[in-house]
């Protein structure tokens, strides 16, 4: 898919269960609450102690498991699942995860959330040695590295393999004996472990998926951890001691569901504080505060609370629209943005609107919304963005790898204000964002990956170094 056709979107969601009846259904439910993290494809691998079985396809989870027999065939007390949005690799069935590998003596299934920064180099090296890859996604590299390791146990092989890869990764690995969980040395992606009432374990990209299956949070996976869950219980190892937390700030700003807690911080509450800090940072006179549904509603309510202005429903989202990125041309995509959102005339007409959005990426949405509000009779539209200017691409698991795509990388605030047709435009400061998230870290270090805003990448970028 060309960049023209493909829009920016969130990464992937992973979910795993060990030691529970109906692991397939629990995984389905868990994945359902992670659907916002990826809508291109979904799959589940289940383990009955003898054999691993898989079903996966392109589409939303409900489309993939459209017939009961697809899910029913996945028997066993453990399973892993994945919802995919391609960060690397094309949108084709071979890339839909979990990937299941059948070896002569064993089976291994793999689900990956993130993006490796040295996968291209590793893949080339492996191919030169005769390895054949069956997908074009970067996730398969890990399995090849495990397979060439001379170490004895799977855990030792895994540790050796993990030390060869770089970038962002949250991995789930299922064999007939265990569920292995690994997080990169910066903890770029969120990953949590919970327990079910019957004692079974659950692993998920976000805590909202633990809630969905009635699991209680027992642990947020920490950078550099390798966790093995089996019938003997849970064992926590470090695959590396060289760790430094740099969790993705965009998870807090946009990706994660508001009911999730990331490292103990509720996402909705963090977004409210982003909105409140934005109100403190720039004064403006207005009549009402409107958020862009749905991702900006938390920030808008925080803005309204802090400024003392009424929070109003000035925009409505049509929940039944297809996604605009499916449209083949820019013009059609822009039309579908219009279909997706509607201004509430009776609310905004004659009003000075403070419009809060969570972030500006390409800038397409903002320009249309400002126009929508004006067409509905708003007399002023002041755009307030609850995150700093997004100027640098991401190489750790978000599908924004081209600087050209980012409007703030090329235009000043004044120029963007003119392009969007807003009366004023302001962005939350980096300090305001760090304060709003409020991660406990050793100041001045925030514990966050803020590279989108300042270009300060927490790692060397290997295959992507020239792109930053
Ligand atoms: P635009 O500026 O038109 O590209 O759209 C920006 C809006 O898309 C933001 O207000 C977010 O709600 C949402 N958004 C932010 N980051 C992403 C991303 N990586 N992928 C898809 N949508 C995003």
Automatic annotation (TrEMBL):
Gene name of the record: purF
Species per Swiss-Prot/TrEMBL record: Companilactobacillus nuruki
Membrane-spanning residues: none
Any GO molecular function: amidophosphoribosyltransferase activity
Pathway entry: Purine metabolism; IMP biosynthesis via de novo pathway; N(1)-(5-phospho-D-ribosyl)glycinamide from 5-phospho-alpha-D-ribose 1-diphosphate: step 1/2
Alphabetical list of Pfam families matching this protein: GATase_6, Pribosyltran
EC number, as in UniProt: 2.4.2.14
Cofactor note: Binds 1 Mg(2+) ion per subunit.
Name recorded for this polypeptide: Amidophosphoribosyltransferase
UniProt-listed GO biological process terms: 'de novo' IMP biosynthetic process; purine nucleobase biosynthetic process
Catalytic activity: 5-phospho-beta-D-ribosylamine + L-glutamate + diphosphate = 5-phospho-alpha-D-ribose 1-diphosphate + L-glutamine + H2O
Role according to the record: Catalyzes the formation of phosphoribosylamine from phosphoribosylpyrophosphate (PRPP) and glutamine.
Listed Gene3D superfamilies: 3.40.50.2020, Glutamine Phosphoribosylpyrophosphate, subunit 1, domain 1
Residues forming the catalytic site: 12 (nucleophile)
SUPFAM superfamilies membership: N-terminal nucleophile aminohydrolases (Ntn hydrolases) (SSF56235), PRTase-like (SSF53271)
Superkingdom of the source species: Bacteria
List of residues binding Mg(2+): 295, 357-358
Cofactor(s) recorded in Swiss-Prot or TrEMBL: Mg(2+)
